[in-house]
């Protein structure tokens, strides 16, 4: 008779699944950080630990031995083409790759195109045997982000602010940076400011940048006509061009435009010059990102600089720390700094 194989020891991930909480919550209970865990949840986790006969030190050693030394970068952005030649995508890849190489790890790139079912995204993320995932999918809802965070593989969101403290992310503070940009336009004397808001229906960054725009306008008691807030399907150049043409047809035109993305701003610039107007004199335009193209003729765009390489590198370091210390890891929400870059696209409001 063949002897029965021994059951492998339970892991922290087994405990998380059984108690239906995140790995971070289990970690908090193990490290007795009970001030941020409800008593009901703590008892739930302790019961799972008892039932599974979970031994933290044994589990940690097992996790180390089972590493693949591979990190996955997963891309999915609705209505935004996967183009690794673009400055935005390239910045993410370069920043992550530098850190991954410095730790002698490997990199796997995975992506989905189109608008699949959210569950398909969650399933696709974990189809590969990797130690951790850098996730770029700003259109995923919070419930799906929580599902990702509760899986056995650590995940860090890149360039996407989440609401739950159980979700790790690295982003810029899009609200504060947008307030700073709109303040710049107001200080130039502009009162009639429109916003090319981008995909506010499903992208948190677009929602946050619009919120920053509204905050700054309200702070100065400036009204925003309904038709001065123009959403679009994506952060794509032709979106900015098309929406700017609509604004130029209004009887009461804006004197300044805050485009919530540089691609939108460049499209708006093209529409303004096509109409025979001068950017920075007849109408001011500002953007967000500071991709290289906005400082090369014909463009000279005032924008918010966010360092995508630095942001991605910070997210990768955070992910690696989670991989190396899964039992002591507590989710982290980090904001990288931004900077207002002033160029010729913004000038005093026309008299």
Descriptive terms for the model:
Rossmann fold; 434 Repressor (Amino-terminal Domain); six-stranded mixed β-sheet; 41% helix; alpha/beta; elongated; 351 residues
Write structural notes for this entry.
The chain has helices at residues 12-19, 23-30, 39-52, 56-65, 87-102, 118-125, 142-149, 174-187, 204-219, 237-248, 262-274, 308-324; strands at 70-75, 106-111, 132-136, 155-158, 169-172, 193-198, 229-231, 256-259, 284-289, 302-306, 333-336, 338-341. By secondary structure, it is an alpha/beta fold. It has three domains: 12-64, 434 Repressor (Amino-terminal Domain) (Orthogonal Bundle); 67-172 and 308-336, Response regulator (Rossmann fold, 3-Layer(aba) Sandwich), CATH 3.40.50.2300; 174-306, Response regulator (Rossmann fold). The strands form two sheets. A six-stranded parallel beta sheet has the order 2-1-3-4-5-11, covered by helices on one side. A six-stranded mixed beta sheet has the order 7-6-8-9-10-12, with helices on both faces. Helix 5 packs parallel to helix 12 (308-324). The longest helix has 17 residues, at 308-324. The model is unreliable at 58-65 (pLDDT under 50).
């Amino acid at each position: 008779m063949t002897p029965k194989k021994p059951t492998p020891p339970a892991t922290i991930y087994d405990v998380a699944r059984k108690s239906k909480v995140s790995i971070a919550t289990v970690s908090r209970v193990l490290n007795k950080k009970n001030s941020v865990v409800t008593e009901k949840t703590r008892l739930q986790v302790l019961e799972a630990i008892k039932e599974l006969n979970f031994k933290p030190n044994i589990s940690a050693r097992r996790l180390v031995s089972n590493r693949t030394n591979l990190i996955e970068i997963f891309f999915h952005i609705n209505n935004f083409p996967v183009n690794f030649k673009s400055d935005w995508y390239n910045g993410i890849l370069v920043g992550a790759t530098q850190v991954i190489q410095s730790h002698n790890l490997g990199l796997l790139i995975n992506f989905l195109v189109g608008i699949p079912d959210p569950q398909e995204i969650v399933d696709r993320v974990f189809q590969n045997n990797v130690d951790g995932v850098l996730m770029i999918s700003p259109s995923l809802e919070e419930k799906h982000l929580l599902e990702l965070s509760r899986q056995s593989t650590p995940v860090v969101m890149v360039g996407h602010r989440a609401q739950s403290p159980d979700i790790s992310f690295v982003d810029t503070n899009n609200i504060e940076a947008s307030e700073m940009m709109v303040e710049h336009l107001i200080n130039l004397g502009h009162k009639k400011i429109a916003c090319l808001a981008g995909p506010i229906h499903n992208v948190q960054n677009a929602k946050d940048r619009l919120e920053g725009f509204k905050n700054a306008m309200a702070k100065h008691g400036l009204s925003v006509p309904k038709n001065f807030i123009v959403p679009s399907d994506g952060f794509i150049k032709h979106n900015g061009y098309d929406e700017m043409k609509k604004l130029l047809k209004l009887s009461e035109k804006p004197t300044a435009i805050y485009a919530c993305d540089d691609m939108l701003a460049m499209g708006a610039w093209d529409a303004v010059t096509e109409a025979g107007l001068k950017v920075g004199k007849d109408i001011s335009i500002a953007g967000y990102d500071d991709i290289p193209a906005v400082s090369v003729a014909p463009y000279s765009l005032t924008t918010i600089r966010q360092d995508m390489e630095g942001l991605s590198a910070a997210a990768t370091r955070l992910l690696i720390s989670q991989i190396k210390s899964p039992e002591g890891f507590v989710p982290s929400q980090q904001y990288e700094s931004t900077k207002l870059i002033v160029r010729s696209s913004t000038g005093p409001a026309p008299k």
